[in-house]
Design a protein that fits this description.
Elements (H helix, E strand, L loop, with lengths): L2 H15 L2 H11 L3 E5 L6 E6 L10 H15 L6 E6 L11 H5 L3 H19 L5 E5 L3 E2 L1 H7 L3 E4 L6 E2 L13 H9 L1 H10 L5 H7 L4 E2 L6 H13 L3 H13 L5 H12 L6 H12 L9
Parallel strand pairs: 2-3, 3-4, 4-6, 5-7, 6-8
Antiparallel strand pairs: 1-2
Helix pairs in contact: 1-2, 3-5, 6-7, 7-8, 11-12
Protein name: Enoyl-CoA hydratase
Amino acid sequence: MSLLKALHTSLVRAVKHSTPTIRRFISAVNTHEAFLQSLPSHPGVTTLSLNRPHAKNAISLQLLKQLTDCLDAVRFDDSVRVLVLNSSTPGSFCSGADLAERRGMSKGQVSKFLADLRTALGKLESLPMPTVAAIDGPALGGGLELALACDLRVAAHSVTKIGLPETKLGIIPGAGGTQRATRILGLSKAKDIIFTGRSLTAAEAEELGLVDYVSEKGASATDRALTLAEEIAANAPLALRSAKLAISRALELSLEPGLDFERAAYEPLLQTKDREEALQAFKDKRKPVFKGE
């Protein structure tokens, strides 16, 4: 059983067999539409889970607010070495904006929602630690744009709906899709998926370069993402953050300024305790124990 299914099953059993007081507590936790959870089984890895199963994690005003709160909290948590964005329930990720809620909004409310969504995705993209999106179900429109704001993307083998269908609805991707997809895929491939609005399978998305990994058949994207996160988290936290910062600036700078920026990110690491630990561990022929210092 995958970790995601195990956690979900445990929660269901806990609600069924718990006392009324515990049930009320679990129910209160379960009302959060986005929440953070550290994983003792994966040191340094934290999940940010979307939790609107009845709406396929469509982005509501409440989900967006709680997602933003989570991003603000995790930004300053040095214990988080890798953040995995996933769904709290198996077989889902994010179906995009909540169109049912959108129909009841005024023009001004829609404009604010789009501005707030842009801000949230900007915060996700600029987090100092590496981020991984675990796509265990449909990732459409704003859902895919959410994943594109992460550093890496993992899709479950069974996923069949990954795409930006906005042109079929008379609009264009409005939360960074035209910009982030182009930076990831290149001009012609981004135009192809946006002009056609078609949905891709996990295998097609991987071949195109839209996702970086596909889980084994029968395994969840969350399981594969956690394996990847564990591999990343084993490295020096300060080095990971500096590497992300330098890589993220690469597309904005010409080569020589980029090399200068890289050197500026490199130099402070030479004075860290983690660097000393790495050299000592190499000498001792053991794995280093990094502390982010």
